[in-house]
UniProtKB/TrEMBL annotation, chain A:
SUPFAM superfamilies, per database record: MetI-like
Organism of origin: Agreia bicolorata
Record function comment: Part of the binding-protein-dependent transport system for phosphate; probably responsible for the translocation of the substrate across the membrane.
This protein's UniProt keywords: Cell membrane, Membrane, Phosphate transport, Transmembrane, Transmembrane helix, Transport
Name the UniProt record assigns to this protein: Phosphate transport system permease protein
InterPro entries per the UniProt record, alphabetical: MetI-like, MetI-like_sf, Phosphate_PstC, Phosphate_Transport_Permease
Boundaries of every ABC transmembrane type-1 domain copy: 98-334
Membrane topology: Multi-pass membrane protein
Region called Disordered, residue ranges: 1-23
Source superkingdom: Bacteria
Nucleus listed as a keyword: no
Subcellular location: Cell membrane
UniProtKB/TrEMBL annotation, chain B:
Originating organism: Agreia bicolorata
Annotated SUPFAM superfamilies: P-loop containing nucleoside triphosphate hydrolases
Name by which UniProt lists this protein: Phosphate ABC transporter ATP-binding protein, PhoT family
MF (Gene Ontology): ATP binding; ATP hydrolysis activity; phosphate transmembrane transporter activity
Keyword list, A-Z: ATP-binding, Nucleotide-binding, Translocase, Transport
Length: 349, 317
């Protein structure tokens, strides 16, 4: 059995070779017989792609269909702008939940990006041999630690340890709105530390610890593939190690840095259990990241689904849909940005 | 960060040296007709020298002496007590069969050998008398004084042609103003005989050039830091004949301005471009040594060693 495929429509530029006696040479449709192995491969690949795409669409559809009941009860505008969450009294919306989710994710990325970059460069550029291999497996291992473990660690160890730092930040940088904490008295020698617990900052910090290994893993992969020829070219010009990293390794690994950051951001937006353990949920937009009270869609769903009747379940589905859409928008934006930026990795000759 | 010895500008002797060098007409035995290319005399007498001296200090050619170099990769000894003097402003060709340690020797001359984790060496490399391997010597200083061109062109693909040419400024932390940069780019590209081909597209990526152009871009990039010695490891082995000719022409123009050491497998090329020649050989399972060295003409026409005679006449290797 043979199959033919025309690839002619993909040709964009047609060579104009003058031919004897005819100046109207029509491009020839190029056909070929597809090998059996290629056909099988194409079938499997196509099947896999279609299945994944179908599942994605079905998830979106399912969420949408189930969200309709709740959203239509309050109207889409109110659903997006309302901060409270009380389906029983028909007052609920995702404004506080969405901003909370984004704030925690932003804190996580702002902290994890420089740390992950530094660690990846340390591992690929400074360590060598057995120690490098050891560090790489440690990173991969850390990426596999379940988030509930990070959550417990954050609650039991990190939170008490970091509160003095939160307090210091708010004392000295409280004039920047996001670091302000309402009701704190810097002159009080016995401050109320509970003002600083369960905050967006602490939740973001724990999520940062979780996403660092994932981000690093990708960055290490791309940095270590920076071509030795370009590295040597830089060194031969008298480059310092940092100079070489800046002009060869970082441009080459740009795709990995952006990709790792996006993966980390996705993880941070969807993180549930660690945030659930740390935050004390509030239903207000709280831009003061150091102050007690934060929220996130995923943690909120985990908290509320047990007590939900069919209407409040529909409201939770709507919240889930909002997170789904947010993640999609961020990912599409990111891939557009990546596609536009020229990565050093592409023009390797 | 490199502190710039600006005071060197005041030294009167340098100008005289530079002019002497330029008037020393190349005496290359070339048997091919070279295409019309950017004339070196089109440069103002001191066009490139001024800006380079401002930025980098000393720019004159230097004498490089390798003294009793032994090199190992792990426990594998690949060179055994090799000594060679590469004279000021001359072109020295290193020839010999593959695997006899020419690249290793060359990489020792600008401290690139130690980039290989298992590599070690003994001996001294002296540039005008000062040992590059001296404890107090900066690695970055040594590599800037002794530039290197690799077998495979390696421009920075994410940088434009302009940025590629002056990449070393950024890499070494030397500051220059826009005017100095422009001057350095034009002068370096002219010296590498690439200016006419790229002057209208300096903002395009360096990775988009042809192989031969990329190699000349790498030469321009190396010239921008005013190296006193330029090492070339088979710079033409990945190039087509026309590009090869242009690189050879560039070498001919640079002769006198800097000391050049070139590894080549092409006997005609060695004969065309070099003043001095050294023949490396590693017999079965023994480390490489220099069998014979001396004036290129003598090496090719009247070799003292039978093995040299066989090699230059294409009998082996
Ligand atoms: N990175 C390396 N690690 C181990 N051995 C090497 C390395 N590079 C070169 N060698 C060995 O050193 C010897 C000399 O190699 P090289 O200097 O590249 O020779 P040439 O340039 O004359 O062809 C060869 O036997 C080669 O196998
Ligand atoms: Mg070699």
């Amino acid at each position: 059995m043979t199959e033919t495929t025309a690839i002619a429509p993909r040709l964009t530029a047609q060579p104009s070779y003058p031919e004897d006696g005819s100046d109207a040479a029509a491009p020839r449709a190029l056909k070929y017989v597809i090998e059996r192995a290629d056909r099988t491969f194409r079938g499997v690949a196509r099947g896999g792609g279609l299945i994944v795409l179908t599942i994605m669409v079905l998830v979106g559809l399912y969420l949408t269909i189930n969200a309709v009941q709740a959203v239509s009860a309050v109207g889409i505008v109110e659903f997006v702008t309302e901060t409270a969450w009380s389906p029983e009294t028909n007052r609920f919306g995702v404004a506080a939940l969405l901003t909370g989710t984004v704030l925690i994710a932003l804190v996580a990325i702002v902290i994890s990006l420089p740390l992950a970059l530094g660690m990846s460069l340390f591992i690929t550029e400074i360590t060598a041999g057995g120690f490098q291999r050891f560090m790489r497996s440690v990173i991969d291992l850390m990426a596999a630690v379940p988030s509930v473990v990070f959550g417990l660690w954050g609650l039991a160890f990190l939170q008490p340890a970091i509160v003095p730092f939160s307090r210091w930040l708010s004392t000295w940088f409280g004039w920047i709105p996001i670091f302000a904490v309402d009701g704190v008295d810097p002159t009080n020698p016995l401050p109320n530390t509970s003002l600083f617990t369960s905050s967006t900052f602490i939740a973001g910090l724990v999520v940062a610890m979780m996403v660092i290994p994932i981000m690093s893993s990708l960055m290490i992969e791309s940095f270590s593939r920076a071509p030795i020829g370009e590295r040597e070219g830089a060194y031969a010009l008298g480059a310092t190690r940092w100079g070489m990293i800046r002009s060869v390794v970082l441009p080459f690994g740009k795709g990995g840095v952006i990709g790792g950051t996006m993966l980390g951001l996705g993880r941070a937006l969807g993180e549930t259990i660690a945030i659930y353990l740390i935050i004390s949920p509030i239903f207000d937009i709280n831009p003061h990241i150091l102050q007690r009270g934060a929220n996130s869609i995923a943690a909120h769903i985990a908290l509320r689904y047990g007590e939900a009747n069919s209407f409040s379940m529909s409201a939770l589905m709507a919240a889930g849909l909002a997170l789904f859409v947010l993640t999609m928008v961020i990912n599409f934006t990111a891939s557009t940005v990546i596609a536009r930026s020229r990565s050093g990795a592409e023009s390797e000759g | 960060m490199i502190t710039l010895p600006f005071s060197r500008r005041q030294q009167p002797g340098r100008y005289a040296r530079a002019t002497d060098n330029e008037s020393a007409a190349p005496t290359v035995q070339t048997d091919i007709i070279l295409p019309d290319i950017d004339s070196p005399s089109g440069l103002s007498a001191n066009g490139g020298f001024d800006v380079r001296r401002e930025l980098f200090g000393e720019t004159s050619a230097g004498e490089l002496v390798a003294d009793s170099i032994t090199a190992w990769f792990g426990t594998h000894k690949v060179l055994d007590r090799v000594s060679l003097t590469m004279e000021t402003g001359k072109v020295t060709a290193l020839i010999g069969p593959s695997g006899c340690g020419k690249s290793t020797f060359l990489r020792i001359l600008n401290r690139m050998h130690e980039m290989v984790p298992s590599a070690s060496l003994s001996g001294e490399v002296r540039l005008d008398g000062s040992d590059l391997y001296e404890r107090s010597q900066r690695l970055t200083w040594a590599r800037r004084q002794v530039g290197m061109i690799f077998q495979k062109p390696n421009p920075f693909p994410a940088m434009s042609i302009y940025e590629n040419t002056i990449a070393a400024l950024n890499l070494t932390g030397v500051r220059a103003n826009r005017e100095q940069k422009d001057q350095l780019v034009e002068d370096s590209l002219r010296k590498a005989s690439l200016w006419d081909e790229v002057k209208d597209r300096l903002e395009q990526p360096g990775g988009g050039l042809s192989g031969g152009q990329q190699q000349r871009l790498c030469i321009a990039r190396a010239l921008a830091v005013a190296p006193r010695v330029l090492l070339m490891d088979e710079p033409c082995s990945a190039l087509d004949p026309t590009s090869t000719r242009r690189v050879e022409e560039t070498i001919a123009q640079l002769r006198g301005q800097m000391t050049i050491v070139i590894v080549t497998h092409n006997m005609q090329q060695a004969a065309r471009v070099s003043d001095e020649c050294a023949f490396f050989l590693a017999a079965q399972n023994t480390p490489g040594v220099i069998v014979e060295h001396g004036d290129t003409g003598a090496m090719f026409n009247n070799p003292q060693d039978e093995r040299t005679f066989d090699y230059v006449n294409g009998r082996f290797g």
